User: Fold this.
Amino acid sequence: MDKQHFLDLLKSRVLIMDGATGTQLQKKKYLDDVEIPEELNIKFPERISEIYKSYADAGSDIILANTFGANPIRLKQHNLLDKADDIIREGIALIRKAGKAGCIAAGDISSLGEYVQPLGQLSFDDAYEAFSFQVALLQKYGADIIVIETMTEIKELKAAILAAKDNFNGAIIAQMTFTQDGMTVTGTDIKSFLAMAESLGVDAVGLNCSVGAKDLARMAKTLCASTNLPVSFKPNAGMPVLINRETRFPGTVEEFVESSLEAYSYGVNMFGGCCGTDPVFIKALATELKNKAPVARNIKKRFYLSSRTKAFDVNEMKRPIVIGERINPTGRKKFQEELLNGAFSLVKDEARAQAAAGANLLDVNMGVPGVDEVNLLAQAVNQIQEIVSIPLCIDSSNPKALEEAVKNCAGKPLINSVNGEEAKLEAILPIAKRYGCGLIALTTDDEGIPKTAERRLAIAKKIIKKADAVGVKRENIIFDYLVLAVSSSPEQTGETLKAMRESKKLYPECKTLLGVSNISFGLPSRQTVNSTFLKMALEAGLDFAIINPHESWGVFDPLAKQLLENKDPGAVKYMEANASFKKPAVKQESAALPLARQLYFAVLNGNKEAVPAVVSQIINGVNDPRGNDPGVEDPFKTVSDNVLEALNLVGEKFAAKEFFLPQIIMSAEAAQAAFAIVKKTLKKASNDAGKVIIATVKGDMHDIGKNIVGAVLESYGFEVIDMGINVDARDIIDKAQEINPLAIGLSALMTTTMPEMEKAVNLRNALGVKAKIIVGGAAVTKKFADEIGADSYAKDAMETARYIKGLTAEAEKLRS
Assistant:
């Protein structure tokens, strides 16, 4: 089935997708004798055929192939990589045999099981290559469409979409999984997901798994109100619970259908079920919705820009939309020196400060002579986007650096910039198209900056023509009609404003932008001129302003206006009034802090690079030259107290959803850096708080949550023995007998592996091991922990740390 045929079907009628495969296989005990579900395709194909046929008979138009985890990373873990061709070929072929005429075979793709950098160790390129391997085989063996589903991390989804676009000819549906609060576990909300997926050119977007139908219908309302793309809807049959050691989904068919009908009213086009649903659910769904005409949606055009956790529609934003200009090493010696040393402390400080001052985006420029800009710019992007929520504007003249940076953006960024030069257009327009970026276009070319508005508009026309040919949407283009210093080119200010006014008439889809502070170069009281010019530019149709958000932008000075309008005697009067102007010195807040509090804020903000210098000064008993810090008698206590105080606040912010996993990880790494220095320099072990074993139980391959727990515990001074994933209960308890730890932390993501936790508890009790057992994971509850006799349940890393710290305190009391 070609793409257009599928899209035409979606316009004409509702399509019914299938229900759960994994939970059906578990229920029927069809996973016995295989390593992973995908192995059934070649080892017990009749089991998969039975599932396929049951959904086809129930009324499914679309059946997802049993290829969910058939990527090279997961297959290699189970020694099945050499069977990849056979697994994917049969996954599709069995649908053709079991399905009815016209049944749509969907290649199913999901997570690789590892987070992409910087949240994990997997590079973006490696993620892309893994997905490309899987997609190419789905194309080879005739999948009609691709469904990317159950994704929780937006950079991984980005890699999957790009791989699908590059290796598949059919339609691509991208689905993410959200919790009840409408966010993924990494903090992505529905509009941030949509902004990125739409920008990359998917054919449909959707929601699946995680929550029941009622909660997902509420999210479908938001999604349908924000896009004209087809929308898919695949909820669970309620949230899973464990009853008598068996996973149950409490949602009823009636609730499922009722919520699906609600989602239909919002404009959803495709309906199916996820975990816990079965052919009974799908048959009831098909009875109500199959072949109905979709509810029409006519959503006005949006121009989204986004980060991992925040998206905004440019068309709805108050003008000007502020792009912070301070992450730029030009003329800043200390900034350049730090970057040359591979550090990003000042970069992150500037990012936080500008975001706090009200910037809507951050311009990121790493143009330092003598550095590997391709690598440095990508690193800066990864560092910045995990500490601030606002989107980024990637600023470079190097096409390779631009591509590497936008590839690593967890959202839809701006590219700064292209211009009318043929070489630039040929190099940069394809990058903007491929990655769906907004694009700043400078109206200059090989001959330099034109002196007239007409010539600048002619360059804009050329850029539009080239962009149309490449496929860059006009609404993604932002024209910069260029600001020259009024002190040296007084006649050019009027030409800039004239070009903007005309541009709004000629290219209403396109936005405008200026680097405002260029206007005042060489003048006294520069900010007075800048602020006055900004008001004039807004009246001429300015949308975006690259400015310093720390400055005051409410000033409008009549003399400055005369100067900018090139009216006599405007310049003379302005200079007479302002020649003696001096900008007051601005104190840096960090410079006024005692060393101990500098360490506290470094950990709180996850500023790992700032830690070594501060800790070294504390250890050496340095007297603060500002007179704020008289040195410390016990350096270890000073470090420990301030680090742990910061971590406690991080935990509180995490619980309040002010921080997400990236901030937890970064603060933990900063804390670990502090304790590592103390341990090495003072010969005083930072891990003398006690030993803790952590492991993911047998049958479970998920380790992201466990790894975060380990990092946080180490930051609190515990010696962590990480036994890895898929660990047998006996091996865990044997290790505990050997090393006598304070506690054992057990993790499980799947309800099917949770019984392994009970085995570990029973073994611990039978062998008389004294270590406390804490259990956690997405499916684990306090009730389950109590039922199996675990000592504690922890919902996250910070709660785990609090519990184990309590054990340490109890032990101290007993010793005293």
Observations:
- The longest strand covers residues 204-212.
- Residues 581-589 have pLDDT under 50 and may be disordered.
- The CA atoms of residues 526 and 671 lie 42 Å apart.
